[in-house]
Amino acid sequence: MSSLLIGTFQVDVMNAVQELGDKAYGMRIRDQISERLKRDNIHMPQIYAALSRLVKLGLLTSDLDKKQSVGQRGRTRRVYKLSADGLQVLSDGVRDSRGARSKELFIYERQDEAPPA
């Protein structure tokens, strides 16, 4: 069993991704979190850093938006989805451990896959 150290902001990002469904891309995720937390000081680098970490931890997946119109200007959006582990984290709830709550961190225990034979 391994532990993931997840910050409260990262949990907020995961909740926003879940709520937005197939429209979960950077700017909309920021707007969703800003609205829920009633904060105007959330910046895009914070969002992208959290998204990058969550993808590396295997809690989110990302892909280019295939629904975006070919005629639209600008870059193709990267959309995010919760992975199976991400869904598990949100459904089980993260629990605080060893004073992590005071540091706004949570520990999530997950089963490691069996080593290859």
Throw out a few tags for this protein.
two-stranded antiparallel ribbon; two-stranded antiparallel sheet; Arc Repressor Mutant, subunit A; 40% helix; 117 residues; alpha+beta
Task: Describe what you observe in this structure.
- This protein has a single domain (2-105), classed as Orthogonal Bundle (Arc Repressor Mutant, subunit A), CATH 1.10.10.10.
- The chain is 40% helix and 19% strand.
- The strands form 2 sheets. Strands 1-4 form a two-stranded antiparallel ribbon.
- The radius of gyration is 16 Å and the shape is globular.
- With 117 residues, it is an alpha+beta fold.
Give a concise summary.
This protein has one domain (2-105): Winged helix-like DNA-binding domain superfamily/Winged helix DNA-binding domain (Arc Repressor Mutant, subunit A), CATH 1.10.10.
List the SSEs and their pairings:
Elements: E1 2-7, H1 8-20, H2 26-37, H3 44-56, E2 60-64, E3 78-82, H4 84-92, E4 105-110
Antiparallel strand pairs: 1-4, 2-3
Helix pairs in contact: 1-2, 1-3, 2-3
CATH superfamily, please? Winged helix-like DNA-binding domain superfamily/Winged helix DNA-binding domain
Query: Structural class, judged by helices and strands?
Result: alpha+beta
Estimate the mean pLDDT confidence.
78
CATH C-level: Mainly Alpha
- The neighbouring-strand order within the major sheet is 1-4
Let me know the largest β-sheet.
2 strands, antiparallel
- For this structure, the CATH topology is Arc Repressor Mutant, subunit A
Q: Using DSSP, what is the number of strands?
A: 4
Weakly predicted, low-confidence segments = 96-104
